[in-house]
Amino acid sequence: MSFRFTAMATIVMAFLPVSAFAQSADVPKLGTCITCHGRDGVGTSPVFPNLAGQKSLYMVQQLEQFRSGARKSEVMNVVAKPLTDAEIEALANYYEGLKPSGP
């Protein structure tokens, strides 16, 4: 399976209907994020970074760069492009509030 196919499949998966958990979380666009980064902020695959406990300021900066295209990622540029500043802030605060996994 090629990287391009995998990336396109990931984009399609990101826009599938979300679980009841994500819909009830009161965080806009969370359902899109949990497809790759997990409900608990732990990546669903080794290629997706863990976001649990990540500092919100860093996440805001990175999402803004993905949205503008200053930071390149075939998947994240598409996912971040429609996000508003308020949605980015809410997502960053949500993931910062989760307990990081690991030892």
Describe this structure in words.
It is a single chain. The chain has 103 residues and is mainly alpha-helical. It has a single domain (3-96), classed as Cytochrome Bc1 Complex, Chain D, domain 2, CATH 1.10.760. Helices cover 53% and strands 0% of the residues. The protein has helices spanning 3-14, 20-24, 30-37, 56-68, 76-80, 85-96. Helix 4 (56-68) packs antiparallel against helix 6 (85-96). 17% of the residues are buried. Residues 12-25 have low confidence and may be disordered. Keywords: Electron transport, Heme, Iron, Metal-binding, Signal, Transport. This is Cytochrome c. Pfam families: Cytochrom_C.
Which SSEs are present, and which pair or pack?
Layout (H helix, E strand, L loop, with lengths): L2 H12 L5 H5 L5 H8 L18 H13 L7 H5 L4 H12 L7
Helix pairs in contact: 4-6
Supply the CATH superfamily name.
Cytochrome c-like domain
What value does the Rg take, in angstroms?
Answer: 13 Å
SSE sequence, one letter per element: HHHHHH
* Oligomeric state of this protein: single chain
Measured between the Cα atoms of the first and last residue, the distance is 33 Å
